[in-house]
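In this section we walk through a basic example: taking a raw amino acid sequence and producing a predicted 3D structure, encoded as discrete structure tokens. The instruction is simple. Fold the sequence below.
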Amino acid sequence: MNRIKLIHLLPLIVIASLVLGACGPAATPAATAEPQVVEVTRVVEGTSVVEQVIITATPEPMTAEDVEGTILVDGSSTVGPITAAVAEEFNKEYPNVRVPVGISGTGGGFTKFCRGETDISDASRPIKESETAKCAEAGIEYVELPVAFDGLAVMVNPANDWVDCLTVEELNLIWKPESEGVITNWNQVRDGFPDAPLSLYGAGTDSGTYDYFTQAIVGTEGASRGDFLPSEDDNVLVQGIAGDTNALGFFGLAYYEENQDKLKLLGVDTGDGSCVQPNLETVAGATYQPLSRPIFIYVNRARIDEKDEISTFVAFYLANAKVLSEQVGYVPLTDEIYSLAQARYDERKTGSIFEGLGSTVGVKLDDLLAAEK
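The resulting token sequence is shown next.
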């Protein structure tokens, strides 16, 4: 009799478990539900024993309203507009998650990130070895994710009618450290250019844009003449170039596209006689060289486990970056690269695919990411 009673009760236990978890799997775990207690009678050596079996209900799936918290982001002024656009759209679906996006430059962003002050760091170049060491000292691991391509635009004032294209060699002559106080006139750059002072504007020395430009043009990251007007705020550079007839400057392509009525875009000749301007096709197709580059976000590995909203945000970011990056003037990655990036995040692969080298010219992201598989 007791054996029959046990057999009859076991299906009830199973049914109770199914009913408690009938709402299906959750994308993000909810708070643990109150455990349910079921009494089970079993026979031990001819004696009936009543035991209590504790069944924990499967948590109900979270709705968008259940996802809440704050995700702290800072870093690159180049990547900032993409992250801000993603955050704005994300907030429409997840209104209880705040994603403030700060702009302190790639280097400044990594300084905060490696002190544990932020959850995600925007970066317009890969992390440097020195920054990797600082993060390691603080016990901070990270997942590196590419989010778009960007081209560095070289611009002059619209009143400039003597140049439409510069070679990499001419750009090197203008920007190398040895040119400080020496190359100060347009007629020193090329025969036929006018006798006019050369006024220079560029991304601030704490920015990833500056690091990449100097690596690509001068040949050494962080090496350039110092007699130029630097700023991490690209709007300051726009105003400077727009107000100076003799100006030459560089910053991210997206800011040029926002202000193309105030600026004149130059093409770049790598030496084969072809002058290429940056745009969606030339950056994506890698024909605008050497000033095309991937841009990234870095996610604090420990915070992923501590804050469920981060994984929701990252999945949303990678799923929507293709459309949103183009909307704000950047060049989207391929579907394959976004899929590889999501797989990298899902597997929680820490470290950089660039091995801490910082600015790397002429990289192929799909090859680097695929090599990890």
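Looking at the output, two observations stand out. The longest helix spans residues 308-327. The domain at 151-284 is CATH 3.40.190.10 (D-Maltodextrin-Binding Protein; domain 2). In the next section we compare this with other chains.
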